[in-house]
Amino acid sequence: MPDVNTIELKPFLPSKDFEVSQQFYRDLGFAMESLGSDLACFSHGASKFLLQNFYVKTLAENFVVHLLVHDVDSWWEVANNVMPKYGTSLDVVRTQPWGMRDFTLIDPCGVLWRVGQKTA
Predict the structure, then answer these.
(1) How far apart are the C-alpha atoms of 110 and 112, rounded to whole Å?
(2) How many CB atoms lie within 10 A of CB 113?
(3) Rounded mean pLDDT, 10-33
(4) Residue 79 has what pLDDT?
(5) Smallest Cα–Cα separation from 47: which of 70, 30, 24?
(6) Does 94 map to a domain?
(7) Given 5, 40, 47, 68, which residue has the most CB atoms within 10 angstroms?
(8) What is the mean pLDDT of residues 47-65?
(9) What is the pLDDT of residue 16?
(10) Does some domain include residue 95?
């Protein structure tokens, strides 16, 4: 049987304004590694994604990222302090019927993030 284990999964997120999006994610606490003029890698703990200097409205507004964290309330506090600078949407933390406490935010490009913590 061939080795079918994976090493890493990193989605490519779009950005309408590459510089603004880079600063947005740094403000949320992600570390950035520039990979050139049109690509950056962001990480927080073991979670990573690639931000690209590429934008298609319908793609951006239908893109959803789920981030599982240990303390959703702390993440919400950080997001609550960051979001006014960018004028984008932030929802309150809610307990979901699928065993999560989570909140949503929308990045400057229109990408929806669901940040959650397991309750069970």
Answers:
(1) 6
(2) 21
(3) 98
(4) 98
(5) 30
(6) yes
(7) 40
(8) 97
(9) 97
(10) yes
Calculate the alpha carbon distances from 9 to 6, 14, 50, 51 in Å: 8, 16, 10, 14
Its pTM stands at 0.93
Question: Does the CA dihedral 28-34-40-43 come out positive or negative?
Answer: negative
Residue of 48, 65, 67 whose CA lies nearest to 7: 48
Tokens 């960018």 correspond to 86
Is residue 109 in some structural domain?
Answer: yes
50-86 burial, b at 16+ Cβ within 10 Å, e below that, comes to: ebbbbeeeeebeebeeebebeebeebbeebeebbeeb
Residue 64's CATH number: 3.10.180.10
Query: Across all residues in the chain, what is the average pLDDT?
Result: 96
Domain containing 111 equals: 12-118
Q: How many domains does the chain have?
A: 1
- Give residue-wise pLDDT tens across range 79-119: 999 999 999 999 999 999 999 999 999 999 999 999 999 99
- Joined together, the tokens standing for residue 7 give 């090493």
* Band of pLDDT at residue 1, cut at 50, 70 and 90: low
Q: Which residue, among 39, 50, 115, has the nearest Cα to 83 in the 3D structure?
A: 115
